[in-house]
Every structure is written in structure tokens, then in C-alpha cells.
Amino acid sequence: MVKKPSSLLLIINSLLIFALILYVILTGLSSRTKIVYVDNSELFDGFSMTKELKSTGEKEFINRKTALDNLYTQIQSKSINASEKEILMKQFIQGKEELEQFNQIFATTESSKIWSRIHSYTEDFSKENNYQLIIGSENKTNVLYADEKITVTKELLTYINKRYEGLK
Prior knowledge:
The chain crosses the membrane at residues 6-26. The chain is mostly helical. The protein has helices spanning 3-30, 40-46, 48-76, 82-129, 153-164, and strands at 35-39, 133-137.
């Protein structure tokens, strides 16, 4: 009879040790670093702020381009003399240079503003979803492999657009 309680005790101890090991393993797995990735191009292009600022920039570009086109038309006119043509040509060259500068400066400054906002919203998104790392990649060029199951591009895009529009 003495053997039965000790074998029962051995079984119970073994089960407890097994349960403890299982608990440690499951706890370790659940606390693993959560890493996901997003497609930067899709995120940037789909962001409402990008669309809004792009529309504003296009309007300004069209206005400036129209003014240049009108100058060019005047330059081509046969009803103006050489000195007027020379003045208009200088204005045209200056306007063309200003248009190119506008494009470069607008793209750089607006992109910087957009990425700043995306980063801010992404930080909040990461905290809400317990992500320790979100990797951004353009068509996976910087990432050698990423399982499609861990992309959160669409979820993050929805989140940042709601935040931008004041819905969240």
C-alpha cells in the first residue's frame, strides 16, 4: 500500500511539472515580439492627407503652367516687336525656373509633412495593437521575405485616414 501513494505522488508531481513547463512555453510564445510590415508606397498614396495636398499642389501647378502657356503664346505672336519679345522671353524663362522650383520644394516639404503625420499615427496604431516593430518597405525591396499574413498595410491605412479625418 505504501507504493501506491508514492506512485500517485510521482504522477501528480510529473503532471504539475508538465503543466509548469507548458505554462512557461505558452507564456513565452504569447509574449514574443510582434513584428509586422507595411507597404510604404501603398500607405503614402492611400493616405487622405497625401491626396488632399496633391490636389492643392496640382491646382497651383496648373495656375502657374497656364500663366507660362499664355506668355509663350504672346512670345509666338507676330504682333509684338523684338524688344517686347525679349522682355516676355525673360519673364517666360524666369517663370519656368520658378515652376520647377515650386515642384521640387512642394514635393519635398509636403512629403515631409505627410511622413511626419504617418509616423505619429503609426506610433499610436502600434501601441493600440501591441506591435513592437512595424517595418516599412516599398514593394518589399528592403525586406528579403515577408509573409503576407503579417502585413498590416490596409489596417494601418484605414486607421491613419480615420485619425486624419478626425473620426478616431
